[in-house]
Specification:
With 597 residues, the chain is of the alpha/beta class. The protein is 62% helix and 9% strand.
Length: 597
């Protein structure tokens, strides 16, 4: 159910092409200038090695004073040009790398925002966050290293190799015989690095999930004395990540001794063979020192290129995880040609609806119910009966298997999802408040709302009085999930948010279940104001809050077993009467309140 694909490596070339096509190619102009700057750096590096020949031959051997100024000026100019070009290419590559991160994060969030609820139920939050942070930043490093490696390092190496071959062809061939041997172990190390990186990133996602769950549930952890248990879980996961990170470090470090050994062999061979030729007159000292200088300078870019495959495989492993997430498409989408929903009255109907979350068991079976325009409909029943599922189908959070969900006779699958969300207001027991101001939380869903509109909604929700008593009034930061407010205050802000939206259809899912009596009284009064003139579907365990509903549906096992008014259902003596008796056995039967008009 919308799960992200795992396993199955894409080819390195295919992943690299997609990474270039979707993220890097857009900045080809900056890259071209960066490559040009890298070419200048490479040319300057090669020139510095070439200049060793006149330094040795003209100054130290021929003792020519006229060459001091020329050679010294050439060396100064070479290093100055190299420094400027290095700065330019570094700045440009940093820009491209950071821009890739920003583009990938923007695209990934926009993609996730379009996913349906089933996707988020199937995938842990920490794993998704890990892709935003660890994977994308690792990918950025690979992009930057690859561009520098294939640019500056490769060009510098080519330039230095050209200098060596120009100085002495035989000596260059003699020294470079050993380097092809290094290709095979380095490629193998790169493959291992990609496997280790994929495992590390997956574990980091689990680590983020566990941290998030533990910190959010710290009150429960402490109440049950489970600090040691949670600490042990974290330590085990940290140790697994440590083990994988060490494997990665060992794989990365393995390329260094290979290049150190081969570099030492090449230099020793160059000194032995080149020195023998200088001693026997087959090569002048200046050419020899120029060759050895180029060989020494070539060692650093050679080592970086050797490490490049490992770094590139790390980035490709992260890119593969990113693309796997981007390739998951929401199961619920607007159908081709879908038009915006036009709400004229706000009547809601479920006609023969069947639905399952997954597996073989149906959560709803052949459910038919109607919420007439402007009336209040209550859904009651035991936990797990299917009440919340019915509410979730109206704004099309999930798609049904059979039947139809309609608003004013229009199937919700035939209209745009954005227009459905505009037509529906939701207040539930699980209040979501952002770590922002009171004003921003009320205005969420109606960008551009004026202060007067926000305060009017707060007054209607019974929130204005307590908001003005807060340290900074409507500018007070409420904290993560509204932690600085009481349950009743958070609930009234949620109601104010729904009032400001002015949606014609209102869904209330246990909006007062977790409140004390005093808070419930305030919130219930605000809800009564909110329901005026709206089609309202209410879920409540406390039957005292719904006895005034126009229609009450009793849900059992995903089916409607009874429907009618409070009086009718009590007189019938069925499932509703039993539920009522359980809650009010010692109390007289309450008369239903007259619905507010």
């Amino acid at each position: 159910m919308n799960e992200i694909a795992t396993g199955g490596h894409g080819s390195s070339v295919g992943l690299a092409r997609r990474l270039w096509r979707e993220y890097v190619r857009a900045y080809w102009g900056r890259l071209a200038l960066a490559v040009l700057s890298m070419g200048v750096v490479a040319a300057a590096t090669a020139a510095s090695a070439w200049l060793m020949k006149p330094v040795v031959n003209e100054i130290f051997v021929a003792r020519n004073p006229d060459m001091l100024l020329w050679v010294g000026g050439a060396v100064l100019a070479t290093f100055t040009i190299k420094g400027i070009a290095s700065y330019v290419q570094s700045a440009l590559i940093s820009h491209v790398g950071l821009r890739v991160v920003a583009d990938a994060q923007n695209r990934l969030f926009a993609h996730l925002a379009q996913m349906d609820l089933a996707f988020f139920q199937a995938n842990a939050t920490g794993g998704l966050i890990s892709r935003f942070t660890n994977d994308i930043n690792t990918m950025r490093g690979a992009v930057a290293n690859a561009l520098v490696g294939f640019g500056k390092d490769a060009l510098s190496l080519v330039g230095l190799v050209v200098v060596m071959f120009l100085q002495d062809l035989q000596l260059a061939i003699f020294c470079f015989v050993v380097f092809p041997i290094a290709v095979f172990p380095i490629v193998r190390l790169g493959r291992r690095m990609r496997d280790v990186t994929a495992g590390t990133q997956a574990e980091l996602g689990q680590f983020t999930t566990l941290l998030e769950q533990t910190i959010q549930g710290i009150r429960l952890v402490k109440a049950y004395g489970m600090e040691a248990y949670e600490t042990t879980r974290i330590q085990r996961l940290v140790e697994r990540i440590f083990g994988l990170s060490m494997r990665s470090a060992r794989v990365r470090a393995a390329s260094s001794p290979i290049m150190e050994t081969l570099g030492g062999v090449a230099v020793a061979m160059g000194i032995f063979y080149g020195g023998w030729r200088v001693i026997h007159g087959g090569m002048d000292a200046g050419a020899f020192f120029s060759f050895i200088t180029a060989l020494f300078l070539a060692y650093e870019p050679m080592k970086k290129i050797a490490n490049l495959n490992a770094s590139l495989q790390e980035g490709l492993a992260s890119a593969e995880r990113l693309f796997a997430l981007l390739d998951v498409q929401p199961r619920i989408q607007d159908k081709p040609g879908a038009q915006p929903l036009v709400v004229k009255r706000g009547a809601v109907r479920l006609d023969g609806v069947s639905f399952r979350y997954g597996g073989d068991r149906l959560a709803l079976t052949n459910v038919t119910l109607e919420a007439p325009a402007g009336q209040t409909v209550a859904l009651v029943g035991h936990s797990g009966a299917g009440k919340s599922t019915i509410l979730n189908l109206i704004p099309r959070f999930f798609d049904i298997e059979a039947g139809a969900v309609t608003i004013d006779g229009t199937d919700v699958r035939d209209v745009t999802m954005a227009s459905i969300f505009q037509a529906v207001g939701l207040v539930s027991q699980e209040i979501t408040l952002f770590d922002d101001t009171v004003r921003a939380n009320i205005a969420y869903g109606k960008p551009g709302a004026t202060d007067a509109e926000i305060e009017a909604a707060a007054r209607d929700a019974g929130a204005d009085t307590f908001v003005r008593e807060l340290p900074e009034g409507y500018s007070t930061i409420v904290g993560e999930q509204g932690v600085k407010l009481s349950g009743g205050q958070r609930q009234r802000l949620a109601i104010a948010r729904a009032m400001l939206k002015r949606a014609p259809i209102l869904l209330l899912d246990e909006a007062t279940s977790s409140l004390d009596t005093e808070s419930e009284r305030h919130v219930q009064a605000a809800l009564d104001t909110l329901k005026r003139g709206r089609t309202t579907l209410v879920i409540a365990h406390r039957l005292s809050t719904v006895i005034g509903a126009d229609i009450i549906y009793v849900i059992e096992g995903g089916r409607i077993v009874e429907s009618g008014s409070h009086r009718e259902l009590l007189a019938r003596g069925g499932a509703y009467a039993r539920l009522y008796a359980l809650q009010f056995a010692a109390e007289p039967v309450a008369e239903p309140a007259v619905p507010a008009s």
